[in-house]
Amino acid sequence: MKPFLMAALAASVSFASLSLAGAAFAQDTTAGDTKAKVDNLEKLGSFKQTGVAEPAPIPQTGRRADAINRTLQKIKVPDGFKIELYAVVPDARAMAVGPNAGVVFVGTRKSKVYTVTDRDKDRVADEVKVYAPGVDFKIPNGVCFSRDGVLTIVEQNRVLAFPAAEFFYEGTDGPAVVVVKQGELIPPAEESYNHTARICRIGPDGKLYVSLGQPYNVPPKDKADLYAKTGIGGIIRMDADGKNREVYATGIRNSVGMDFANDKTLWFTDNQVDGMGDDQPPGELNQITKPGQNFGFPWYGGGGVRTVEYKDDKVPADVVPPKAELPPHAADLGMIVYKGKSFPEKYRGGIFTAEHGSWNRTTPIGARVMFVPVNKDGTAGKPEPFAEGWLTEGGEYLGRPVDVATLPDGSLLVSDDTAGAIYRISYEK
């Protein structure tokens, strides 16, 4: 465990004495509940109790669970696989599975983070409850774990770390560290309701990687220098304590899914430009093989399709093309490189993506889990449906997959923010 986080677990050391705390808690201190929750973050950083009451757990049975189970009867998966309801989780988005006990932490685009616990290991959640209820979260979509059990939560414009989250989640209080202060992840003037759901991963190098979607469909040219400098419309990385921040990749419109492969390269999905027709441009699955690569946006709206706004501009010579083109406007969000061992050989080392589904296409597509094979030479094969049926023939969404993750047994979790659920897909020989 990193030294600054080890210190967080020693009761004799206060986070207020660390360079990450103290002034790091300077943020909106308006009167009322918001100020109280700001003070609560300071208390957590100093190992003090907040006195916040624990919210009631989320019911796992009843009409909602029954309705979800009825929908799951319509979902098609390959032979040998089955899909079941794992947990009822309101607004479920990005997921992070704890490395020690397998507790699942779930981000949302609202103001809550949830924990999902399977105590008896029957592969169905026993308890779903709000995590860190005393913290005032704002769009805490991004959640990711380090190998030594530190949970990072990336909000719209702040990054927090929670050491030993799998241990402290049982109560309402636990140590918290401000990694990036409020208002310093992106310039406050660039905050937007659009493309603001961040995601994160801890890399093999121990650094924190964060994707920063840009707020426009296609950004104006006068934003180019600011975005290149801050990493908006790209992926940034920094040390676990927030230091040594750098722009890792550029030319990305809005990535809401990334994962490291066994060869330490970083794969990510990218959503294409809207308003260019039903069948163009394609979505993208990309691979970062070295720092500083450019993936072509905004010159390209997706794949090799030029944007109207930049069609007369010269494309940088070093643009990296996608490894695979994904169905246009299907909104591929979360993704993982499958490293489990319980699925057949075909799927090992391949990529699962969660298609949220189109929002402005004449004929909707998506709302499914896709699989993209990755060959031994590093090339990607043709994307194929893996789990589908949440989109009816009449164009109604019965659910909208957002993210994918694996449990320690190798089974696949799928989050759904529309149904408010997490599903588990398992394989039996």
What features would you describe in this structure?
By secondary structure, the protein is mainly beta. Helix content is 9%, strand content 28%. The chain has 5 helices and 27 strands. The protein has helices spanning 3-8, 33-45, 63-72, 165-168, 224-230, and strands spanning 81-88, 95-97, 104-106, 113-117, 127-131, 142-145, 151-154, 159-162, 177-180, 199-202, 208-212, 234-238, 246-250, 258-260, 266-270, 283-288, 293-294, 300-302, 305-306, 324-326, 332-337, 351-355, 368-372, 384-388, 401-406, 412-416, 421-427. The chain has a 5-stranded mixed sheet, with helices on one face. Strands 1-27-26-25 form a 4-stranded antiparallel sheet. A hairpin with a 6-residue loop joins strand 3 and strand 4. It is globular and about 60 Å long. It starts with a helix and ends with a strand. The relative contact order is 0.13. Mean pLDDT is 92; it is low at 4-31.
Topology:
Blueprint: H1 3-8, H2 33-45, H3 63-72, E1 81-88, E2 95-97, E3 104-106, E4 113-117, E5 127-131, E6 142-145, E7 151-154, E8 159-162, H4 165-168, E9 177-180, E10 199-202, E11 208-212, H5 224-230, E12 234-238, E13 246-250, E14 258-260, E15 266-270, E16 283-288, E17 293-294, E18 300-302, E19 305-306, E20 324-326, E21 332-337, E22 351-355, E23 368-372, E24 384-388, E25 401-406, E26 412-416, E27 421-427
Notable traits:
429 residues, mainly beta, four-stranded antiparallel beta sheet, 5 helices
Q: Mean of residue pLDDT?
A: 92
Oligomer: single chain
The largest sheet has its strands arranged as 10-11-12-13-17
The total beta strand count reads: 27
Q: For the record, give the distance between the C-alpha atoms at the N and C termini, rounded to a whole number.
A: 38 Å
Helix segment count?
5
Low-confidence runs (pLDDT<50, min 5 residues)? 4-31
Strand content: 25-35%
Question: What class do helices, strands and sheet pairing give?
Answer: mainly beta
Q: Roughly what percent helix?
A: under 10%
Which sheet architecture does the biggest sheet show? 5 strands, mixed
Q: Radius of gyration over alpha carbons? A: 21 Å
C-alpha geometry: globular
